[in-house]
Amino acid sequence: MKNLLSVQEQLRSGKSDLEEIASQYLERIKEINPAVNAMVQFDEKSVQDEAGRISKKIKDGSAGPLAGAVVGVKDVLCERGKKVTCSSAMLKDFESVYDASVIRSLREKDALLIGRCNMDEFAMGSSNENTIFGPARNPVDTEYVPGGSSGGSAAAVAADMCDVSLGSDTGGSIRQPAAYCGVVGLKPTYSRVSRYGLVAFASSFDCIGPIGKNVTDTALVLQHIAGHDTMDNSSSRKPVDDYLKGLESEDRKLRIGVPEEYFGEGLDDNVRKLIEEQISALEKDGAKIVPVSLPHTKYGIATYYILATAEASSNLARYDGIRYGHRADFREIEEELGKETRAIEKDIKNAVGAGKEEAIERLSALDSPLVRLYKKSRTEGFGDEVKRRIMLGTYVLSAGYYDAYYAKAQKVRRLIKEDFESVFSDVDVVVSPTAPTTAFKVGENQDDPISMYLNDVYTISANLAGICGISVPAGTHPNGLPVGIQFMGNSFRETDILQAARRVEMINGAGS
């Protein structure tokens, strides 16, 4: 498999042509996308026009460092002149008037943006089934989900509709779909990549990162989207490492921590076997394997689903049909309210005594037209999973429950981070399965939110701790579906996890 560096060399030498490459990808999308449903927007003419512009720059030697990279974009990132729906009826008609910082970086460095990718609504989900566009499907076997919420981004790369894609990761939404689809997905350290222009789910968790066919391509894109951004005060000023140069350090002997908590109950036996085989191979390759413990891991799922839903409830409150988002038909609301009012007034006229008092109370309890507009707009605009998380988040933030749930969860989050800080004093990276099972069938877990949430059991800790993580293919399960191995590294140690992932590729004879 060629990586982008070799493609770029061929483009510079004239052996390849970007316009031809773009045409091949567009044809591939038209051929494969009806079955996979990974791309929800693409404009052939604008893609070809942009390919022509970049091609001229390649020929005159003025092209940027990402010229030749064909990139898919998750439909949660603002892109000027494009609809940004977040796969939600709430934003189905929203067109962005500006570029997210990562999109601006890609454009400035001459990446070719080929289309926008399917996702779970507002990035809430683990299967890419919660979407107004219909479920995305796993290109390895379309009866199965591609994972979520960046399922379309992972499926587009796996189905060869683009070289790389951008996803967002709040609790595993880059790494889990990458594992399910058999590609590489990297969640950077929180604040390593600007979130400006990312539609928020949970602001203290959300990260933007790349999904690629190999580690080298993933590192290349990360190199050019990482760094401080004046539009995002939460983005780090810490210098960005040279990730590609770091991949060249093949002689470095990594210290790899194996946490007992990630290999316990709930892990599929064949997934366990594949991961253990990879760990043994890494040890033979010279890595030092160190047993470690992350004792607060067992509280991770509960902590995440308290804190993330609380932040979601707050962030999504802005979509009220007045300032932002879908607005219900006000005329229908007025007509409905008028009918109810007239019916109660008739009851008042006909009632006596307590019956009249009861009818008057019913009349006074009617919602105002404005309150009804809020309710109807949000009812029509949000899907079931988003409503579920808004209600959970509102509950844990409500009076009487804040201290019992939200405040306590924040304390546990701190303990989880301290667990990792302690472990990283002894090891470079921590290894685990990316997900406890392979991909499940479309519709299999749709009515079981708890089973769906447990798909994140190995990925959410990195988001809680704010550290970096990567999933890289670890082999094929006996059921024929891909399995991913995850490496987590300390804050701003993306080079460490990229090196570990690259070693797995080399051991397995993958990448280039």
Explain this structure.
- Heterotrimer of A, B and C subunits.
- This is Glutamyl-tRNA(Gln) amidotransferase subunit A.
- 44% of the residues lie in helices and 12% in strands.
- The chain is of the alpha/beta class.
- Helix 9 (269-284) links the parallel strand 7 and strand 8 (288-292).
- Helix 10 (300-315) packs across helix 14 (384-397) and helix 10 (300-315) crosses helix 15.
- The model has no long low-confidence stretch (mean pLDDT 96).
Give the rounded overall mean pLDDT. Answer: 96
CATH class of the largest domain equals: Alpha Beta
* Sequence of strands across the biggest β-sheet: 1-3-2-4-6-5-10-11-9-7-8
Number of helices: 18
Query: What's the total count of β strands?
Result: 11
| Count of the domains | 2
How much β-strand is present in the residues?
Answer: 5-15%
CATH architecture of the largest domain: Alpha-Beta Complex
Rg for CA atoms? 25 Å
- Weakly predicted, low-confidence segments: none
From N to C, what is the helix and strand string? HHEHEHEHEHEEHHEHEHHHHHHEHHEEH
> Biggest sheet, open or closed, and with what strands and sense?
11 strands, mixed
The end-to-end distance, rounded to whole angstroms, is: 6 Å
Structural class: alpha/beta
